[in-house]
Design a protein that fits this description.
alpha/beta; elongated; 40 helices; 5-stranded mixed β-sheet
Length: about 950
């Protein structure tokens, strides 16, 4: 189908440019093509090739090319444009230098059209400029659309950098340029300044391009003029170069930035000119406020990868579409990812401004994120990682709609716009890094000491990975445990604590048993020692069969402690014997919930030696009465129910037995006033679905304060706690409760650095990256995975000392980025292996169905039908967090997989999948931590 309309000779030229990638990819036998208003000249290698060239023109223009008359027909009347073939000797043009103009970059092959998703398609034909090796750093702010907060974000970054310099007691010099030559904003802001500039940016362009004396001498004189209007900020100095001085300059601009690019000095001369001025001025940074829109006034800077470029946009459709178009063009000349990581070049960054919370709930917001991430070149690594395009979010503040001058901007930004300043401050912290954290070096002995610390982390993490080991004699005070202590200081708990496998159920079970007394647990939570007239005993009644000797000893000691308080003649309780009784009771197929309720109550009474009139005790009131007579209070713990009822999904008796325990027994206990009986049942989350078939949400809400789920803050506290147990980074477990989330993030930078790369890189923040990698799309995290990642990261650091580049990083962090990244794969494999044991149906699907498919078929996103998944399997995988359906996508291939499962199941990202994965992950994290 024809996709063009030929109205003028310019339309014909556009087709030639598009078909030949702006002349860089000419068909065989064609030496050159020149298109003019009155004719097209095609130089061919030999006149014998005219027929072949005619075939090419026929392919490009269809019936609009008349081979007999050698003309291209327009769509207006009978007008034509002659095509002339020239066979004169002319050398092949094999080295066309593409310049950073929209009209030239537009015709280069885009990333999506090339054979490689990760290699910029025009890398070979666009010669990137040599990276700057000396100061200053250039930072430019651009927007496709005006009025989106571009200039305000520039000023925020400027103020944040100056404040950071004050904080570090450093002196920096900064040049700010208003390079918006059509609608300058900073120039008008500066109109009220006491010291006015004596030269303008327009003057600079003219002096640089048409200097009447030697250019270096002229620039030196120009720089002296710039210095006359210096503004002091503490120990720092700020110079400002306005767009113009007088109105007539703005109305008559003979020299534009594009003239420098078209001149004899070369393609990237505009950036070079500004950088050179900065060198002569002796500044450390140059901030450039660019013209909005698709203007060649801005394009030479927009395409220059040596410059840090911030693209500001709102989620307005016009702004997103335009910004995406710009990103796609920048992506065509993007440097290799390795060059960005080595800090030779920069990828652009996006600031989405003027956001409101209600906007982020709209589909338009996620669609905007997807469009932006998709538009730019993707990462080369097959990882669920931050994309090369960094996206920050700034919220709407009405006061910022009207700003008079620099001081007004500073006052309003500091007073009202936390999000805008936070983005700027994070950037400034990456730019100005203290010597102690980035450039310090340690001795060989200190290097050995650091490795010893990593070894301690590895050993402790390995011991703590499985709660069944019984390792550790301390408890991390988490929010669920705080709630448990707060709500049950006076009365005894009657709680079902719900959590996924690896969430900490068994760990808490063992640690509560270790306390032996409820009051000891309360003292630990409150971090005080209290004296109590009576003591409440903790009796671990049902436990998992996976406990090892150390953990068994802890639970046995707790039970024996109760036994001594009751009667020395009381027989020792047998956990295995209790399980045997449960298994035997399951053979009573006629039992309903009342019988099972009586069974559980009777077993509680037997465990503590309380007998009824007829032998059996079928009511908790009887037990409570007997305990009051003995002046005893006992809390019974239940764990390991998944081992007792492994077939609950299809065995009604197991379902009835569990429902009686978690619903009927607590219900009966709640009817006893001032009960001397307490109950804490640890239950795996997925068992609820098979047990509570009505009012499930109501049941979950009842016990939500004790839910063993991990958000980002509890995840961070867990890591800090582990560091304190391993005696690392000066972590002190006694102050964990008093540390803010920000404090802990800063402390953990000693463990894993600020970012998953250099602190001033564009990489993700380490704590956010790890949390994202370990959670599923439902924002669920298991504590065991955290501990396991620390183990593998430490193990990789030690065993692959050279490859992990420990020497490069150990001065400011214990775990190198490479070790953390590589730790995800073994974590994922173990996660899958455990899930296969935990969910037999899942194991069967993995071993019998999934193994049939090749790596090429196991691509994300996927259609469930293509991988042999029926609806029950899909539901199971969704509940487990293994797959996630993107309901906002219409394609059949709309199922995704989190990184913690992807590696272990052997899936990889399909071409073009990364942007959507990143949007889904970002959406999931928004719910919990952002």
């Amino acid at each position: 189908m024809k996709d063009f309309k030929l109205l003028t000779w310019l339309d014909i030229r556009r087709i030639f440019r598009r078909k030949t990638n702006y002349g860089t990819n000419l068909p065989e036998n064609i030496v050159s093509i020149r298109c003019f208003s009155d004719a097209v000249e095609i130089n061919i290698a030999d006149e014998n090739f005219i027929n072949k060239v005619n075939d090419v023109l026929k392919e490009w223009f269809g019936d609009w090319y008349d081979e007999e008359e050698s003309v291209i027909r327009f769509d207006i009347g009978d007008a034509t444009l002659p095509v002339e073939f020239i066979s004169e000797e002319e050398p092949y043009i094999t080295d066309i230098e593409i310049r950073p103009f929209w009209e030239e970059i537009a015709y280069l092959e885009s990333n999506s059209e090339s054979d490689s998703e990760t290699e910029p398609a025009v890398k070979k034909i666009v010669k990137l400029p040599e990276a700057y090796t000396e100061k200053p750093s250039l930072i430019a702010f651009y927007s496709f659309k005006g009025g989106v907060g571009r200039t305000l974000n520039l000023t925020a970054h400027l103020f944040a950098l100056l404040d950071r310099a004050k904080e570090l007691n450093e002196s920096i010099n900064v040049l700010v340029i208003d390079a918006d030559l059509e609608a300058p904003g900073l120039t008008y802001w500066n109109a009220l300044a006491k010291q006015q500039p004596s030269v303008s940016f327009i003057n600079f362009l003219e002096v640089y391009h048409y200097s009447p004396i030697d250019r270096e001498k002229a620039l030196a004189l120009f720089a002296n003029e710039v210095k006359k209007s210096v503004k002091h900020e503490g120990n720092s100095q700020v110079y400002f170069l306005p767009a113009f001085l007088k109105d007539n300059e703005l109305l008559d601009i003979p020299i534009l930035p594009e003239h420098l690019v078209r001149g004899i000095d070369g393609t990237w001369e505009y950036g070079n000119a500004i950088h050179h001025l900065g060198e002569i001025l002796g500044v450390d940074y140059v901030f450039i406020d660019l013209r909005a829109g698709l203007s060649e006034i801005s394009s030479p800077i927009i395409f220059d990868p040596r410059i840090q470029r911030f693209l500001v946009t709102t989620i307005n459709d016009q702004s997103i579409q335009g910004t995406s178009l710009v990103l796609k063009q920048i992506g065509k000349v993007a440097p290799l990812e390795a060059e960005v990581k080595d800090k030779e070049y920069y990828d652009p960054s996006i600031i989405i401004s003027m956001l409101k919370e209600e906007f982020k709930k709209l589909p338009a917001f996620n669609n905007a994120l997807f469009e932006l991430i998709s538009a730019y070149v993707q990462s080369e690594e097959d990882k669920l990682d931050e994309p090369r395009l960094e996206i920050k979010e700034a919220y709407f503040v009405e006061e910022l709609l009207y700003v008079n001058d620099w001081e007004d901007a500073r006052s309003k930004l500091n007073r009202t716009s936390i999000s805008v300043m936070k983005i700027a401050q994070e950037w400034a912290e990456g730019e100005l890094i203290t010597t102690s954290t980035e450039e310090s070096s340690l001795s060989l002995r200190e290097e050995t000491d650091r490795l010893t610390e990593v070894n301690r982390l590895r050993d402790l993490s390995q011991r703590y990975e499985y709660a069944e080991n019984g390792e550790g004699e301390d408890l991390l005070v988490t929010e669920p445990l705080k709630n448990l202590a707060t709500n049950y200081k006076e009365q005894l708990p009657c709680v079902v604590s719900i959590g996924a496998k690896g969430a900490g159920k068994t760990f808490n079970y063992v640690q509560l048993s270790r306390f032996k007394y409820w009051e000891s647990f309360l003292d630990k939570i409150d971090n005080i020692s209290t004296s109590s007239e009576s003591q409440t005993y903790i009796f671990p009644l049902l436990q998992t069969g996976n406990l090892l000797d150390k953990a068994k000893n802890v639970t046995n000691e707790a039970r024996n402690n109760v036994r001594k308080a009751l009667s020395e003649n009381l027989p020792e309780f047998s956990p295995d014997g209790f399980k045997t009784k449960i298994q035997k009771a399951l053979s009573n197929i006629n039992w309903a919930e009342p019988e099972w309720t009586e069974f559980w109550i009777n077993e509680i009474s037997i465990a503590i030696g309380i007998n009824g009139e007829n032998g059996n005790v079928n009511n908790l009131s009887i037990i409570n009465r007997e305990l009051k007579k003995k002046n005893l209070r006992i809390i019974f713990l239940f764990d390991g129910l998944e081992n007792i009822f492994p077939e609950i999904s299809y065995q009604p008796q197991q379902e009835k037995a569990l429902r009686a325990l978690i619903q009927n027994v607590p219900g009966q206990l709640s009817e006893i006033r001032q009960s001397n009986i307490g109950l804490i049942i640890f239950l795996r989350r997925d068992f609820l679905r098979y047990t509570i078939k009505q009012d499930l949400k109501q049941f979950e809400n009842l016990y939500r304060p004790y839910d063993l789920s991990w958000d980002q803050e509890s995840f961070l506290r867990l890591v800090y706690w582990i560091c304190s147990k391993a005696q690392l980074i000066d972590a002190n477990q006694n102050i964990i409760g008093s540390l803010s989330k920000k404090n802990i993030i800063e402390e953990l930078q000693k463990l894993w650095g600020k970012k998953i790369g250099a602190d001033n890189s564009n990489e993700a923040y380490t704590h956010s990256w790890i949390f994202a990698a370990l959670t599923d799309f439902n924002n669920r995290l298991q504590a065991r995975d955290v501990v396991r990642l620390l183990y593998h990261a430490a193990d990789i650091t030690i065993e692959n000392y050279q490859e992990s580049q420990f020497v490069k990083w150990f001065a400011n962090r214990l775990l190198p980025p490479q070790a953390i990244r590589r730790a995800i794969e073994p974590c994922s494999r173990k996660k899958v292996d455990e899930a296969k044991e935990e969910y037999p149906t899942f194991g069967k699907w993995v071993d019998e169905t999934l193994y049939q498919f090749t790596p090429e078929q196991k691509k994300i996103p996927f259609a469930v039908e293509e991988l042999g998944m029926d609806q029950p399997t899909v539901r199971m995988l969704e509940e487990m967090g293994v797959i996630y359906e993107d309901t906002g996508k219409q394609d059949t291939a709309r199922f995704y997989m989190p990184e913690i499962f992807r590696e272990g199941l052997g899936f990889s990202l399909a071409r073009g999948a990364r942007p959507r994965v990143m949007v889904l992950k970002r959406k999931a994290l928004e719910k919990g931590i952002m």
